[in-house]
């Protein structure tokens, strides 16, 4: 069994030079990966990749930083895109109080509307939450049936314990950073059965490549770090997190 990258952005221009090569590596060395949309254009590109490449699945949605202009028409387009066979989630959606391109209320509205869309389509969600954990949890409580992933989990162990009832925590390259004490503590205390591995590439590159471009195959370094923290074998990390990724995205 191989690893999964549950969150990548292969449409990013940083991959323009060698995207095909990279995808060939994914086809050979990963179980699969999920390309995550953040606006309409990237969502359309994501659908294109899922049609063209066997091991690429996708999520489509509007990121809180790109929520300006969210409308009924846009939502209809998203709904149509989400009906493609290999679109397995709505995301990334959520709240970002760090890059406030819109006030909190506008972000919350866009978040709620897209959770409703996910419920309607019976899909999980991929949640982006930055400096907004309290409000994120409040909104998710309004939707007791929705499931998904809290991507690049940024919160405390206490918040994690609340969230893992319905959500998996996406763990990425930040786990390998020197100042990652809080996240190390989360990984130590939360069962492996509730963790999935991601890169968020081209961002958040793990050690030993921190500062360079991130790529899907670097999930390996995150998996190694999880094994080290939990004092278990890398094989167990691969087996359990890959099964988790299949479950949450409904990929068999
Ligand atoms: Ni992302």
DSSP strand tally: 8
CATH class: Alpha Beta
Question: How much β-strand is present in the residues?
Answer: 15-25%
Strand order in the largest sheet: 1-2-3-4-5-6-7-8
C-alpha termini separation: 13 Å
Instruction: Please summarize the sheet with the most strands.
Output: 8 strands, parallel
CATH fold assignment: TIM Barrel
Bound small-molecule species: nickel (II) ion
What this model shows, in words?
This protein has 252 residues and is α/β, with parallel strands linked by helices. The protein has one domain (4-249): TIM Barrel, CATH 3.20.20. 42% of the residues lie in helices and 17% in strands. The protein contains nine helices and eight strands. The protein has helices at residues 19-29, 40-52, 72-82, 104-121, 133-141, 157-163, 181-189, 219-230, 234-249, and strands at 4-8, 32-36, 56-60, 87-96, 125-130, 148-150, 167-171, 195-197. An eight-stranded parallel sheet has the order 1-2-3-4-5-6-7-8, sandwiched between helices. The longest helix has 18 residues, at 104-121. 48% of the residues are buried. The model has no long low-confidence stretch (mean pLDDT 97). Nickel (II) ion is lined by residues 7, 9, 36, 92, 200.
């Amino acid at each position: 069994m191989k690893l999964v990258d549950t969150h990548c952005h292969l449409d990013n221009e940083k991959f323009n030079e060698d995207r095909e090569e990279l995808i060939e590596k994914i086809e050979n060395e990963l179980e699969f990966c999920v390309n995550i949309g953040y606006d309409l254009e990237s969502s359309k590109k994501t659908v294109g990749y899922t049609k063209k490449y066997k091991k690429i699945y996708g999520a489509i949605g509007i990121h809180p930083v790109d929520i300006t202009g969210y409308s009924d028409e846009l939502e209809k387009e998203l709904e149509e895109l989400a009906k493609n066979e290999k679109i397995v989630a709505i995301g990334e959606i959520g709240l970002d109080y760090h890059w406030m391109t819109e006030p909190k209320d506008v972000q919350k509205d866009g978040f709620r509307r897209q959770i409703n869309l996910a419920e309607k389509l019976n899909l999980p969600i991929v949640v982006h939450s930055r400096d907004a954990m309290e409000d994120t949890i409040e909104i998710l409580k309004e939707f007791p049936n929705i499931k998904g992933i809290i991507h690049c989990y940024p919160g405390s162990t206490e918040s994690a314990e609340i969230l893992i009832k319905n959500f998996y925590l996406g763990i990425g390259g930040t786990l390998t950073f020197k100042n990652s004490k809080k996240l190390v503590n989360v990984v130590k205390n939360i069962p492996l059965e509730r963790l999935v591995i991601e890169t968020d590439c081209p961002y958040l590159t793990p050690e030993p490549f921190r500062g360079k471009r991130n790529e899907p195959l670097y999930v390996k370094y995150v998996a190694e770090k999880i094994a080290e923290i939990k004092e278990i074998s890398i094989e167990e990390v691969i087996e359990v997190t890959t099964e988790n990724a299949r479950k949450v995205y409904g990929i068999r």
